Amino acid sequence: MPTTNTKKKESTNGNAAKTSNGKTSKPENGSDQANSQLEKLFTDSLKDIYWAEKQLTKTLPKMKKAATTDELKSAIEEHLAQTEGHVKRLEQVFDMCGKKVQAKKCDAMEGLIKEGDSIVEETQNGSMTRDAGIIMAAQKVEHYEIATYGSLVQIAKTLGMNDAADVLHLTLDEEKQADEKLTEIAEWHVNQAAEKEAINN
Known about the structure:
Layout: H1 2-14, H2 37-66, H3 70-96, H4 107-122, H5 128-158, H6 162-195
Helix pairs in contact: 2-3, 2-4, 2-5, 3-6, 4-5, 5-6
């Protein structure tokens, strides 16, 4: 029996695998497999959010054009610049993980973008109500991204990809800040002004 236990320990120690950044993954989490299901989920999710971020670089300028207040226009413009940086960071993460940069259509983001388009179409041009709707649509996008990046950070850590996790966390922080900025704009001015607008039949 003692001999058998020793062999088991040696076998366990020998299963620790190196990730693409040289970090040793934890065998008890199953991440020592070069092509584990968790690693596939991580890669697929990267492709998904990469598509989403690239679509946002096309959508945000339209949202800015539809917005009324300078504060909201400025916030959207600022986040557009950040989003372009998020795309580059994701490309960096793909490279760090030894994966090909690739986008996969994100159904969730496509739906959120369509919903935002509908809000613009259904609200009056130049109204605070439209701005309130744009903020709502934008925050739905932010909350989706916060959830996605938060999960990616944790999965990256589990896989031992700590450097990739650090890069993803930078984007996570910026998404949270963008969401807070939108809340401030809504609370400070937009919602109160929109509440006074009558319905035009």
